[in-house]
Specification:
178 residues; 2 domains; 5-stranded antiparallel sheet
Length: 178
């Protein structure tokens, strides 16, 4: 390599996170250093997050798959309006919701549905409950364990089971890249 220009080297088409690049650090005295792809793309090692939001009308007290985005209703089937394909390896951290009406006790259950099918076909990854989902503010359900890890290509769906009709319902799912 000492006798070749960087432009003369063989191209690498896919970089692994532990591959090393040359970089010129211009803070202070300009000095050539090395950096891994992981450190370069991670923005200095900070966590990266993304959100999925939705809003709908929930007029049932049975388990309902909530839509991803906004639509008028929920469903008893995982399908194209309520399943999100995971774009990066990540972990579900939290689910924050607010409702138009007090729903009483509410269960939130994330899933990895493998097809478009009735909710009863799938087993939830877990359940988080709020004892009294009121219409006065937001409620945050925390997941944030490896049980709720997703990999690229997994399908993500979530159900809400209220004790009473929630009517207007909005939410945000927070994911952390892993």
């Amino acid at each position: 390599m000492a006798n070749k220009k960087i432009t003369e080297l063989t191209a690498l088409t896919t970089a692994a996170s532990d591959d090393v690049l040359a970089i010129v650090d211009v803070s202070g005295t300009a000095e050539t250093k090395k950096i891994t792809v992981a450190n370069l793309t991670g923005g200095g090692g900070g966590d990266e997050f993304f959100t999925v939001n939705g809003a709908c009308y929930i007029g049932q007290t049975s388990a309902r798959a909530v839509p991803l985005g906004s639509t008028t209703g929920e469903s008893s089937v995982f399908g194209y309006t309520n399943v999100f394909v995971i774009p990066k390896n990540c972990q579900l951290v939290s689910f924050t919701s607010a409702s138009q009406s007090t729903g009483g006790s509410v269960d939130i259950k994330p899933y990895k549905p493998t097809s478009d099918s009735n909710l009863s076909t799938f087993t939830p990854l877990g359940t988080v409950n709020v004892a009294n989902h009121t219409n006065s503010g937001t409620h945050t359900f925390t997941f944030n364990t490896s049980t709720f890890n997703y990999v690229v290509g997994d399908r993500f769906g979530i159900t809400v089971t209220p004790a009473a009709n929630l009517n207007g319902f909005r939410y945000t799912c927070l994911f952390k890249m892993t």
